[in-house]
Amino acid sequence: AEIEFEIALARESGRVRLRRFYARRIRRLLPAAAVLVVTVCLASQLVLPRLTRAGYVSDARAALLYVANWHFLGSSTGYFAEGASPSPFLHFWSLAIEEQFYFVYPLALIGLLALARKRGRQSWVPAGLVVLLLLSLGRQLWVAPSDPNGAYYATDARLYQLLAGACL
To answer: What is the pTM of this model?
Structure first.
């Protein structure tokens, strides 16, 4: 919805205000994420053994930087790890993918809009989005049989879900 709002502003003013868009995303999500991360870290000091909570430092950092999906993909634990105690920050993987999408999508959209203007064809925008969707879906289908963690956590293998919404 925020992207559509920015596109409507672009149509009216001829400008896309990316700084304003990103600032709204940060104001909306980062304070709540920071409160959650700090609360979990403080609570873990009270109830968890030192070695357990030591591993949470990098998990918390990855959560706040919106790269939790790549962090957990690179670690040996995750949704598919047997017998492992999951990190309290594990669920940040999906927010990380969403924020990575919102970092790249406006830039891709601006590029597609510029290409459409240059070529004089508005159909380049939805066609470009469909191509990106198909590339991501193809990546998901390619990776899933051999690397379930990659299919689950990797941004490029999950973007098709967000791009489906963008196409609609």
So the answer is: 0.81
